[in-house]
Design a protein that fits this description.
The structure holds two protein chains of two kinds. Chain A is α/β, with parallel strands linked by helices. Chain A has helices spanning 26-39, 59-62, 75-85, 97-103, 105-114, 159-166, 179-191, 205-209, 216-226, 259-267; strands spanning 47-51, 66-69, 90-96, 119-124, 127-128, 134-135, 170-175, 196-201, 227-229, 246-253. In chain A, the strands form two sheets. Chain A has an eight-stranded mixed sheet, with helices on both faces. In chain A, strands 5-6 form a two-stranded antiparallel ribbon. In chain A, a hairpin with a 5-residue loop joins strand 5 and strand 6. The N and C termini of chain A lie far apart (56 Å). Chain B has a single domain (17-101), classed as 2-Layer Sandwich (Alpha-Beta Plaits), CATH 3.30.70.20. The chains are: A alpha/beta, B alpha+beta.
């Protein structure tokens, strides 16, 4: 008898195959996340996955855990509420760059500032994939999208630097080619107390790749040739510039009191013991 | 595997063997598993699945070392490998092609 896929017990298999396009990297990031959940040995009943809107937001619907598919950009506020109401749960936010950094940008920086004990996984595909590939806050300079047909004049966000500057205690960046490293980073961030952020660079072959003359395999070859793994590098070096080389690795791993701990200590002093 | 010089501890090292299983109905034919298999075990087959994508097929079943890289790079949970132990590997010669043909 043939055994089933090792991750089938964490998947709503009746909804697979997913809506993701052939060659889309979200599935790989998602499967790395599920592997990390499995390896972490945390009781699946104590894990919650929250995601926002967008292609990566569908992940919450495919996972066989308690999950929230929230309104656009509001994945982190829902996760914050969950964590404060039920501190015993491990909360994972799995969402995309448009959801977390464009419409939800303020929620991200303030959750990092407060150091809410959640793990944020951002699948960065450099554009608004679900709505047709428009230029987003993370689109590299000179990239072609339907809204920037002559090339993008803007500078993209450096997400690891933004997370670090806002106060995240764990910051890492990988591409989908480094699946084992993603798994390891997610595992470390699940064990970490505080706001952990893992960015995963992923190809979007249909909307971003097609307009920039990249087939999915070409994108992965670019990731292979143009990335440099530098663990412990300062996040200011991690800007998205293919000419210079994209720095990957675990950038930040520090400790800071979390929002939950401080709230208990400072705001609930009169609580009967 | 051919060595230029046989390592001194070659007889102590256990090289694992694996069988690759492909769930045909899930595959979207992106080709990541074929491109990034370190042993070049897979190739594109001429067959289509019910969604019309070309599937990977196992070209060199005996070369699979059960590294699971196809399993972790696959975005669709459509391929995985399972380790074979000593006795199974003998009957594997006939079995591996069969696994490739049967879908889920």
């Amino acid at each position: 008898m043939r055994p089933g896929h090792p991750l089938d017990d964490l998947l709503r298999t009746d909804r697979i195959p997913s809506i993701w396009c052939p060659g889309c990297g979200i599935g790989t990031a998602f499967s790395s996340c599920l592997t990390a959940i499995k390896e972490s040995k945390i009781d699946p009943k104590k894990i919650v996955m929250v995601s926002g809107i967008g292609c990566s937001g569908r992940a919450a619907g495919y996972v066989k855990l308690d999950s929230f598919h929230t309104t656009h950009g509001r994945a982190i506020p829902f996760a914050t509420g969950l964590k404060l109401a039920r501190p015993d749960l491990t909360v994972i936010v799995f969402s995309g760059d448009g959801d977390l950094f464009a419409i939800g940008g303020n929620h991200f920086i303030h959750a990092a500032r407060r150091n809410v004990d959640i793990t944020v996984i951002c699948v960065n595909n450099f554009n608004y994939g679900m709505t047709g590939g428009q230029a987003a806050a993370t689109t590299p300079t000179m990239a072609k999208t339907p809204t920037t047909p002559f090339g993008n004049p803007e500078t993209p966000f450096n997400l690891p630097l933004m997370a670090y500057a806002s106060g995240a205690v764990y910051v890492a960046r990988w591409t989908i080619l480094h699946s084992r490293d993603i798994t390891e980073s997610i595992n470390e961030s699940l064990a970490k107390t505080g706001f952990s952020f893992v960015e995963v660079l992923s190809p979007c072959p249909v909307n971003y790749g097609r307009r920039n003359k990249e087939k999915p395999l070409d994108t992965l070859k670019i990731y292979k040739d143009k990335t440099i793994i530098k663990n412990g590098a300062h996040p200011t070096q991690a800007d998205l510039d293919y000419e210079k080389g994209i720095i990957l690795g675990k950038f930040i791993d520090i400790n800071r009191p979390t929002f939950g701990e401080r709230y208990e200590k400072i705001c609930r002093q009169d609580k009967p013991q | 595997m051919k060595f230029w010089r046989v390592p001194l501890d070659a007889d102590e090292i256990h090289v694992s063997k694996g069988i690759v299983y492909i769930l045909e109905d899930r595959c979207k034919g992106c080709g990541y598993c074929i491109e990034f298999c370190p042993q070049q075990v897979l190739e594109f087959s001429s067959l289509f699945n019910k969604m019309g994508y070309h599937l990977p097929s196992v070209k060199k079943p005996d070369d699979c070392l059960n590294c699971h890289y196809c399993e972790i790079i696959c975005p669709e949970f459509a391929i995985y490998s399972v380790e074979v132990t000593g006795e199974e590997s003998e009957i594997r010669g006939q079995g591996s092609e069969k696994h490739n043909e049967t879908g889920s």
